[in-house]
Specification:
homodimer; alpha/beta; Rossmann fold; 3 domains; six-stranded parallel β-sheet; 12 helices; disordered C terminus; DNA-binding; DNA-binding (chains A, B); repressor (chains A, B); transcription regulation (chains A, B); LacI family transcriptional regulator (chains A, B)
DNA sequence: CAACTGCGAAAAATCGATTTACTCGTTTCT
DNA sequence: AGAAACGAGTAAATCGATTTTTCGCAGTTG
């Protein structure tokens, strides 16, 4: 057997056992911290582990248990700051509990979402954090239900009869945006959004509309909602402005809408906030840096991730009871992109 | 055994075998497409699989092989578009080959990088795609080398004597930026960067400087390089401008530098491109949307991911030979943030 | 008719860790 | 003293799939 040096196999528990002169079972017990091991033997095991650089193989370790120490995370995309931060947080929290996070992007497709879920089910993950493409009533949640999977739904959801949900309190945040805009004197406001994400977009719109109409019954609120993709939304927005509509403020119900709105303003040579005001749901680093700084609703990523994992691990550990629906409060940053209509140049208030 | 209905265990290969009236080995062969199975038996196996909804457990399947069908990916962060796209691509490519991608963020820490790597080694991953925090000479690459791991290094690397590398051709892109700026008449240019990422930042700087000096020997190139973190860079930049320096253009050698530069401009009331021009390495969606649109070097994410995975799988399949060092060409988008010096109305007013 | 060839499939070993069941001594209790 | 309890440890079963080995049987060949 001269081929031992090239492909150095990693030490297994048996290698440790034979070097320490005990059985594999004893090694396992030592590592688990079981008390009924002679200190002398324990020391020899520790020495052997040290010398061989032994580490438990998580794959083999997970073989025997029904729920493996793996958490699956499915996000609609990885490209935005929000989901990037979310994955970072989830990974960190999973790691803290000795779990491995396997993250996958559904790329905004419900079909892919279910495929990924099926693959995670094959892996017998202990639980799944799912940020559905559309809402809690999609095929993915149904799949999880049908297969008795443990999971938590986040972000584009309100509440569910089978799974705990955690999301940002869009309604409250939208109400605050409405208060700000109405307070600044806006009476013609355009809301922009994507229809497919029904749950959240509708909530945001309702929260906004209700509060706005309550404060100023004469306010006019236009809505441009596209089916599912960004480009149609851009086209609709272009048409809307082409018809001569001139709202004094735009409230974008999601991040890409803010980008689309900005680029449409630019195409028409409008400047914020002199020509039109802009607030967007979802914050991004660049928004504080551009001229003008863009006002935005900041979602509490850490809180959402934290409570999602908390709920998930509680279920994994067998907690019973009806599913909970958490709403985490957002913060609204009114930056320079919001001014008063017809006021001309105005100076931003520092945040 | 009345407790069977609540915790429905998934069907194993033995369940399929007994239902089909054959042995587990035969089921395995049928699934592997081995020819030496009687068609009649094969059909019964297929039927049993269908009826039980059987799917192979990838964990158990991987147990026996030395290299598991898992690829590890370690990125410095997930929050930026670049790495977000990278992870999405890598995941997609891994999935295409029947591998599972496990991604983790080193959060710009070399210590964490090595920890994650050790954990991936425990998982006996078939290969690792590592985007090092600093460069190819860090502890993570050393760990991979010492443990005989298979891997590819990407992004902040040039070349390595043990691993294949794939990164953007920073030098060529920087040269093009230099040509553009010199061509527009700039003769006092500030380059901004972070020092720790030595490999790429140095390359970018050298490529830029060499070409600029070649085209215009009288050009003055200042450099503001911070140790490792963004905030010190911001402070240094502030000091630089506070001393009265007024370059006509800034070339940021990495994304966050672009943001820092923009926010410093804003603090001082300078506008692009009238007061100062700006080009950044690394593109982002928002850069096309702001006033002005920010000129940027776009890295070929798909190409980098594609060639990284290609190289990685070649090595996994046993390909020998010296490590390769690939450079993928970038594209430079000269947007509105770049103009000619002294051309526009200097609207600089202290805020 | 015994020995040989091949095919198809089953039995058994393997991967690495954990857990159950069981075996010795030794101590404690009645 | 004899029985029960306990301490320390090991062999073996288990998880689910794969791979190697073995086996039975049918058809050939010498």
């Amino acid at each position: 057997m001269a081929h031992r040096q090239d492909q150095q196999r990693r030490a297994s528990i048996h290698d440790v056992a034979s070097r320490a002169g005990v059985s594999a079972a004893t090694v396992s017990k030592v590592m688990a911290g079981v008390a009924t091991v002679k200190p002398e033997n324990a020391q020899r095991v520790f020495d052997a582990i040290e010398q061989l650089g032994y580490r438990v193989d998580p794959l083999a370790s997970d073989m025997r248990r029904a729920k493996r120490r793996i958490i699956g995370a499915i996000m609609p995309e990885f490209e935005s700051e929000f989901f990037g931060q979310m994955v970072t947080q989830l990974e960190s929290l999973a790691e803290q509990r000795g779990y491995t996070l396997v993250a996958a992007s559904s790329r905004e497709s419900e079909a892919r979402e279910t495929e990924i879920l099926a693959r995670m089910h094959d892996w017998r993950v202990a639980g799944v954090v799912l940020a559905p493409v559309r809402n809690e009533h999609g095929p993915a949640a149904a799949f999880m239900k049908a297969n008795g999977m443990t999971g938590v739904l986040i972000d584009r959801v309100l509440s569910d009869d089978a799974f705990d949900t955690v999301s940002a309190d869009s309604a409250a945040a939208s109400a605050e945006v409405a208060r700000e805009l109405i307070g600044k004197g806006h009476r013609h406001i355009l809301a922009v959004g994507l229809g497919e994400q029904a749950a959240t977009v509708r909530t945001r719109l309702d929260g906004f509309r209700t509060t706005a109409l309550n404060l100023a019954p004469d306010v006019r609120i236009d809505v441009v909602l596209a089916e599912s993709h960004v480009e149609p939304l851009r086209a609709q927005l272009r048409d809307y402005f082409a018809e001569g509509e001139r709202p004094t403020a735009v409230y974008s119900l999601f991040l890409k809408g803010t980008l689309v709105a900005l680029s449409e303003f630019r195409r028409r040579g409008w400047h914020c906030p002199n020509d039109i005001s802009l607030v967007g749901f979802d914050d991004a680093e660049w928004m504080q840096v551009t001229w003008p700084a863009i006002a935005a609703v900041v979602q509490p990523v850490r809180q959402i991730a934290g409570h999602a994992m908390e709920a998930l691990f509680a279920r994994i550990e067998g907690e019973e009871g009806p599913p909970t629906a958490r709403l985490e409060p957002c913060r609204v940053f009114m930056r320079e992109s919001v001014g008063s209509p017809g006021n001309g140049p105005h100076s931003a208030k520092p945040q």
